[in-house]
Amino acid sequence: MKVKGWILYKNSTADLKTKSYEIKSLLKVAPDLDIDIKLINPIDIDLIITSEDNKSILYKNKVQPLPDFVISRFGASTTYFTLSLLRHLERLNVCIFNSANSIEVVKDKLHTQQVLANYNLPVPQTMLVKYPVNSSLVERVFGFPLVVKTISGTQGNGVYLCTDKNNFEDLIQFINSTDTKTNIILQKYIKTSHGKDLRVFVIGGRVVACIQRKAKNDGFKANFSRGGEVVQYEITPEIEWIATETAKILNLDIAGIDLLFNDDHFLICEANSSPGFKGIEKCCDISIAEEIYKYAKLRLCKL
To answer: What's this model's pTM, rounded to 2 decimal places?
Structure first.
């Protein structure tokens, strides 16, 4: 009997764009693994809170049979409604990758750092911006350059490198004039990781691949989606331990853990609940989509 799954994503099958590499991969390999996969846009779902659980989810105004598992591909852009949908499906004993609570934690970069620091994992020094910003305090604590980030963002969006105090003050003033409610964090600049980092892919508590990303032309952001170069990187015991512990603590079944080079060791830059894997498949002999489905089927067998 086929296993039935949903992929939660913002686009339908008909209008998938070129950039939706991961979705296309997940759709392509599913039949070979005897998986009946369906792409679902949460905007087409209605939740009805009722004691009749088998009639509580409507898809395009019709009662929808529940899947065996669900993969959410929204990551940091996950809305309140999508989180509510995931929680509802969890209550109905549908296997979710990743859980609503883990996605909610990870989409908040400050909260992620707080949780990891509480477990004594290596994280860069981080500070939440409070308006008006005391730039002298910032200079004393962090010095310059320093990294400025929005609380939520992906693919390098909302990440800036401020080279000096004047540059920092101009950026904060601009952000504040645009949206006074924007939450910003500051992070210590790690010189040894300028323009490069590691992306470690973890599935079911196991590191399946690791790549180094390097920015072009001495740039600061190393994201593959921004044109960064990627090469396979050896999975050392330290890398494996940090990545698997991070995923475990954040309760992520599927995770992209980004590590910064800190001299001879590593710091956890951030964790991703819906990581891209085009860069990994470009330089590693692995099908991430297959690995995800194999793990999903294994989890279902143990339920």
So the answer is: 0.90
